[in-house]
Amino acid sequence: MLWVDKYRPRSLDKISVHREIANNLKNLVSEHDCPHLLFYGPSGAGKKTLIMALLKQIFGPGAEKVKVENKPWKIEAGTRTIDVELTTVSSNHHVELNPSDAGFQDRYVVQEIIKEMAKSRPIDVNGTKGFKVLVLNEVDKLSKEAQHSLRRTMEIYSGACRIILCCDSVSKVLEAVRSRCLNIRINSPSKEQIVDVLEYIAKKEGLQLPMGFTGRIAQQSNRNLRRAILCFEACKVQQYPFTDNQPAQTLDWEQYISEIASDIVNEQSPKRLYMVRGKIYELLVNCIPPEVVLKRLLFELMKKLDSELKHEVCHWAAYYEHRMRLGQKAIFHLEAFIAKFMSIYKKFLIATFG
Amino acid sequence: MAPIHSSSQQWVEKYRPKQVKDVAHQEEVVRALTNTLETGNLPHLLFYGPPGTGKTTTALAIAHQLFGPEYKSRVLELNASDDRGINVVRTKIKDFAAVAVGSGNTNSGYLCPPFKIIILDEADSMTEDAQNALRRTMETYSKVTRFCFICNYVSRIIEPLASRCAKFRFKPLVEDIMTGRILHICKEEGVHLDSDALTMLSSISEGDLRRAITYLQSAARLYGSSISSNNLISVSGIVPKEVVQSLYQACKTGQFDLAQKEVSDIIAEGHPASQIFSQLYDMVVQATDISDETKARISQRLAEADKCLIDGADEYLQLLDVASNAMRSLCNMTQECCY
């Protein structure tokens, strides 16, 4: 089992990073009821961990017995039927899914599932009606229509099910949906907190730590706890016992992007652009999301730039990222950004060195 | 299995005024409407004003006071989440409007005026075609049906419809009235709010009573019965002032790396960029030490970034761009990248 899963806190009491939030959540569900919730925060901050722990707090250990299902849905929409297949993770008490996986048909999925859940409302021994919890991941990736229909279904079926939404950036969630939920911001753990967690894991695993090693990993992880733990484990696999100056493992795609960045800075010509295109394609076919590529590339390029150029480059990065969202084919916009960068950089070089 | 408690009821619904005269802070509207209620003679109505000022409450209260137990059969309520395309106007609304009703004693013995009401909530989100289709319907059935339009922006209602209605403007609630209502709810629910938190609540809700009550309830659920202003900030999703202030200061120094670090921290803390934008905007506009031109420059880029966010652009990049643009404007650097 990966350390990320092995050391994931299972209950609200054991959560160490977001102590205060966990306590508040515990109070919130002390009457075995909760409003709709919306968790937001950067990835690797602990949203999912908190949600799972919260479910356990509400329903007891039953919430942990999950089964993964690949469920086909047949949805009647007016005159035609739509087939959607979606992976759900469910227990007796909750259903978890990524509605955005259904692409443009996400609207139907959202409505259909909630309706189905509302129909099979659980009743306990005393005959009181209970509720189920629907966990929806990546709501920020849902289409506007799906979010609109979510808002309506949330009200109609609020008696039978509670909805827990989970997303990275709350700006992309409709105000109307947000205002119907209790919003909970999950911040990324600080570097010190990451170091604490890593040291805790090391103690449990019985590992010897050289000075400052966990600090380096924490530094590299960009305040992303999941990445820090994965990286820590990778380091252990690579070389143990740790040496004093062992570097923290970087991901290979990040190294690859940093190579691309040096390529771009070293030479600005159509030939080089063509070469870089091949490399970018390589990244894209390996399923690295284009916006991540662009962000990382910007980050790497920024390291090599004078501060007067940084303004302009970051402006164009924002500009092409926006265009990428509006457009269809990401490679065009990535390449446009690189070409733009080359032209700016070359102009700068000529102006400075003649 | 977890049973449902009555505590899950929304306070917004629980404390919604039931009578027109209880509606807070809208004296002119209340006065005019009380008159019409007494005579039982109602014109078509158009309520407009910012959210959370009592428009829907007033409309529902009128309907309840007029019809009492007959409410179900006499009132059709449609809001934005219902389908309201031109087809619905042509069929559902028209069918409902066309039914004739008698006056006087109905079987329940309640004295009803001889008409029905159709409440169209959030009418500004109706398409222009649908609104046009309503024009004739309104006139044809005006004997038996009154319309009540509710919207935020009166300019989105087409002129022919607006001119057929008596218009009522709802104004944002002032602080005294708001605190009065909040304190009343606090007393009923047994929630303690210190004076600091009370001022904070009225300032973050910006005259929107519904928002204030929602925040209050969220905070009460999460933090128990004693609420401080920090609790309110965290449930409302408002970014603490210091965070925006330090971003602004970083921009003023003219050092790009400093601003970049601030931006990364903000994103890592999970603050929503759209909220940062609106608070940064407030700060820039209220600043006294920068020129109008600088303000305009920064605001322009803020507006563009906000649009980009709505299109789904990345928060980090947009925020970084706004910060870099603000820095260039504040420090009088060259604005090279004009498009």
UniProtKB/TrEMBL annotation, chain A:
SUPFAM superfamilies: P-loop containing nucleoside triphosphate hydrolases, post-AAA+ oligomerization domain-like. It comes from the Eukaryota. GO terms for biological process: DNA repair; DNA strand elongation involved in DNA replication. May be involved in DNA replication and thus regulate cell proliferation. Its main location: nucleus. Heterotetramer of subunits RFC2, RFC3, RFC4 and RFC5 that can form a complex with RFC1. The keyword Nucleus applies. InterPro entries: AAA+_ATPase (IPR003593), DNA_pol3_clamp-load_cplx_C (IPR008921), DNA_Rep/Repair_Clamp_Loader (IPR050238), P-loop_NTPase (IPR027417). This is AAA+ ATPase domain-containing protein. It comes from Picea sitchensis. SMART domains: AAA. It is found in: Nucleus. GO terms for molecular function: DNA binding; DNA clamp loader activity. Keywords: DNA replication, Nucleus. One of its GO terms (cellular component) is DNA replication factor C complex. Residues 33-192 form the AAA+ ATPase domain.
TrEMBL record, chain B:
One of its GO terms (molecular function) is DNA binding. GO terms for biological process: DNA repair; DNA-templated DNA replication. The keyword Cytoplasm does not apply. GO terms for cellular component: DNA replication factor C complex; nucleus. It is found in: Nucleus. The keyword Phosphoprotein does not apply. Keywords: ATP-binding, DNA replication, Nucleotide-binding, Nucleus. Residues 41-176 form the AAA+ ATPase domain. Its main location: nucleus. InterPro entries: AAA+_ATPase, ATPase_AAA_core, DNA_pol3_clamp-load_cplx_C, DNA_Rep/Repair_Clamp_Loader, P-loop_NTPase, Rep_factorC_C, RFC_lid. May be involved in DNA replication and thus regulate cell proliferation. Belongs to the activator 1 small subunits family. Heterotetramer of subunits RFC2, RFC3, RFC4 and RFC5 that can form a complex with RFC1. This is AAA+ ATPase domain-containing protein.
